[in-house]
Amino acid sequence: MEQAGAFIIGLTGQTGAGKSTVASRLRAGGLAVIDADVAARQVMQPGSNVLAALADAFGADILLPGGTLNRPLLAQRAFSSPAQTAKLNALTHPAILEVMRREIGRAVQGGAKAVVLDAPQLFESGADQICDFIIAVIAPEELRLRRIMERDAISENSAQLRAKAQKSEAYYREHADILVRNFPPFDLAQELAPIWGRLRQLEEKAEDT
Q1: What is the rounded distance in angstroms from the CA atom of residue 75 to the CA atom of residue 186?
Q2: Which one of 26, 35, 81, 130 has the lowest number of neighbouring Cβ atoms within 10 Å?
Q3: Predicted confidence band at 4 (pLDDT cuts at 50, 70, 90)?
């Protein structure tokens, strides 16, 4: 579905699969990219209603002196079980989605013809419902865990907790329109080619209507 004059592309995948690398390539290709992680940081600023709700749900000690969020501690508790992860999502997703919708509007006002929603929780938040098509980035578990550990400077156990809190690769294979394999021996440029093809199809269809 074309939203407010622009096509909306969902970009998601398991943590550590290399979604940020794909987002950078799409941005370099001229697409506007809205980062859900940036939106999440906005809604969890000190003094925000979301942060207060998280402190009530997961313990006041997730707030550091000055009111900022202790992200590692929140992650440890929120990813400890599916129920805890669901609680985190329920408290944060509506506010994050609202910010992303505003950012879509700004991008369209700025002349963007296609907007990428870079969102690890795309399906869980319901943001997939506003997308014209969805890209999922995948990589083998061992590689993903190593990337997470290096990226976030956390233990293998903590990395596994984050990975297990997300949907399986099979889920992304089933629900995504385009699958991007971001690991050797696959060439990333070739993996991204179907994205540009799908976008051209949408543009041509819009011109004919």
Answers
A1: 32
A2: 81
A3: low
